[in-house]
Design goal:
alpha/beta, Rossmann fold, 2 domains, eight-stranded mixed beta sheet, two-stranded parallel sheet, 18 helices, 14 strands, 46% helix, globular
Length: 531
Amino acid sequence: METEHGVQEAQTYWIEPTALELMQLNVPGQLSPQELAAMPDTTEHLRELTKRMLEEHGENAKSEYDRYIGTEERELAISPETHNAIGEMLRGKNILVTGAIGVIGGALLAELQKYAPGRIAGISRGTRVPNEDYTPVERVEYRNCDIRDKDGLRKVFSENQPDVVIHLAAERSPGKAELEPKEAISTNVFGTETLLEVMEEFADDKESDELPRYIHASTGKAVRPYSPDVYCGSKKAGELIVSRFAARMQTRGKAFLASAGRFTHNVDQSIVIKNFKEALDDNSVLSMHDPLDEFYVESAKESAQLLLLGALEAQEGELTVSAITDLGDPIRLFDVALGAIASHVGDAEAYATLENPPLLYVHGKPAGYEDEHYPGHYHPMVSGDISPLIGPLDGDIDETPKYSKHPDHKWIYQLDKFGILYIPEASTQFEDELEILLTACGMENSEHLLRSTLQNVSWAGMHARLASVPLPNLWRQIDHLTHPRGSKPNILDEHHMMDDIILRVAEQREKVVAHKSASTALASDVELVLN
């Protein structure tokens, strides 16, 4: 439109907000279902908005929900050659599985049966099997034992004489880890350390130069270089503790193979879907932390297969970590929640006939879930064509093998891997903070100290890990992500700190290797990097 003077006048367009945007704008967050029930006007508003969402997005959301649930049936392709390779690793071997009665534990125990192992012992704490919630797997000897109980573990090792130890036991809920940090840290950090110490004692008592093969369950959240969250911080510390142990066993001349599988959101044991189904059964509120959150999904069977496949590539002196390359497209939390309602009640027209229908609600993120992800987690410019659970600061992404060096290991098409090397000279602060964390775990009313010390462990662990990451990876991270962001506003302080650490370590390491190949710094030089 032109004015009387012929000047083009700017036009203002009104874009009607979506139902989801209206919900986020007009309905306060952080309310419980009970609090919402006491607010009839708000409840009615949520009902209208949920109906409108079904009209706008219900069909697509149901399709995505079906894809999400269908992940339960997904599995990795195991070729005959690969089956034979796993069989050679496990046939006739005594196997000990911690966390055996969890969903992934059950899937793993069933998978192990295919490879003619010797004895299989499954340990868990506080629950006896069989019980109404768990169907025991045949040929498995179940034991009650807490992995933090060193004497209990010694007895289990003595009775079962394991050749292979698969460690699944953990506090797996980020929300619960924030509510009970001592439980999460003592289990995920020091439970892992206790298990490794008993393995070493077991080998020493037998005067053996070989320890049981060790297979570790990790998390995709460990792709974060640093996290203030208790769950992520404790699991990242666990990876580094296993790496440290592998390095020490190599120094002692002990044969020790350690591998880990990084899992993502597991649909078979999904806390999200459990909560949604309970809300649907009660015609209650389906609360979403952040409706636009996207996450990858895998099945319990894929997780179990990942652990066994990744173990084939374990190398001495490191923790060899694997993750599934192609996890499919990520799922939006909004689609899972709305799709669950659509699957339960039907379309918007059917929803409108219900007297007390389930409601969709944006609650907001509780403690344990980061508000903003560090952009270095996974980025095409620096990560390349690899699993989204492996980041540019994990390992040598340029040379991550897509084809196995062993012709019969055809599974490598489906996995990516990297090694975590532990460099003692760069890990002094990590060792010191870990000792303080152990002391805090033994103290009463130490929640604040536990949280702050775990964050110190996480920062120190980030330093230690950067010392072994190939230098080109650090510069790619800096060139593509750190420098372009510069001093932009609204960047979290902790993300600025991470950028600063990466830049400082890269610059110091560049000086160390100025006259060497940029990707082959000697371990003896690394102590110069972080001092």
